[in-house]
Amino acid sequence: MKFILAILFSLFIATAFAQSDFQKKFQTAFIEVEDGGIIELPEGTYSLEVSLWLDGKENVTIKGKGMDKTILNFKNQLSGAEGIKITNASNITIADLTVQDTKGDGIKAQQVNGIVFRNVKAEWTRGADSKNGGYGLYPVQCDHVLIENCVARGASDAGIYVGQSNYVIVRNNKAYENVAGIEIENTSYADVYNNEAYNNTGGLLIFDLPDLVKKKGGYCRAFNNNIHDNNHVNFAPKGNIVGKVPLGTGVMIMAANNVELFNNKIHNNITASTAVVSYYISENPIKDSLYYPLPENIFIHNNDYQRPDVRATMRGRMGKLYRFKLKFGKDVPHIVWDGIIDEKSKDKKVLCISNNTNASFANIDAENNFRNISRNMNVHDCNLSPLAPVQVNVK
Length: 395
Fold this sequence. Notes:
With 395 residues, the chain is mainly β. It is built from two helices and 28 strands. The chain has a 28-stranded parallel β-sheet that branches.
């Protein structure tokens, strides 16, 4: 027995040293890679205690052997918050690997011109938990972003998040068991298509928020997505704006402008299949004098809506609003607008709705304490000019 225990202990020590050796090799590769180089990560599961950081590089590829073959696990992370962090760079590709159980965000790219996430998974293996990191795949303040064929699970904010960026394509991805499956925030010129978002609190969020470096986004197209069964309890840490998103939200458009939502399947989201709201609905104070809190030029057309014959959630401020103030019962409208408008811009088209399948509507008149709720969708039967496809310049 002692002999067997000695062998097991020796194997444990050898494995620990091997893991430590790989960690040093990975760190060295990220630091020393030359412009135009490739960082090849081998097949296997590797326990890492520190972030891997790539800074100031050009034309670099970080490549594993496959999404489920090269797994970087940060469960015992001691240093840094992200699993992989990329900063001040250009033309970077991350492909064919998984990042798990990071202390903070899974993979963060900041101030990168040309960033590709391809066949990458970011997940927290314990599932939904407020102690999980905020974002799975997280490009922020980037230009020319492509996220394709990726998976995000377990983020306590957003699984796939693009913030304060320009020229973005998010396609063919899967996001589930996050608070927000996919979030586009203060971002200009984004195409979000052929994605599946399910079992999140909210499937797709398109937000403009105050107090950020990039003040305004817009010109976002979301189409051909399957946004279904996003009825997961909200597990965001207290104080996060997404903590106010009620479970059962398919799509929420908050304070954004020039958004075209079309050809999507939006099914079985029990509270708000599609909500178009101002920032005022959050009930947070606005201290940013340059921020415009109202949505404008929202075009919702040719989507397929379905929801079960059930009451909306009671959870959260908006859920309770649906249950007790709006009194929709089981007849919850598919498309909800808070009805708040800018008195100086009455002639502008805030919202056009046309050619959707099985769609119902309500203007909840939030500005007047919900006194004059209208379910007349005809006043929004109009069309806006289609937005142009987005082009991204990535290698």
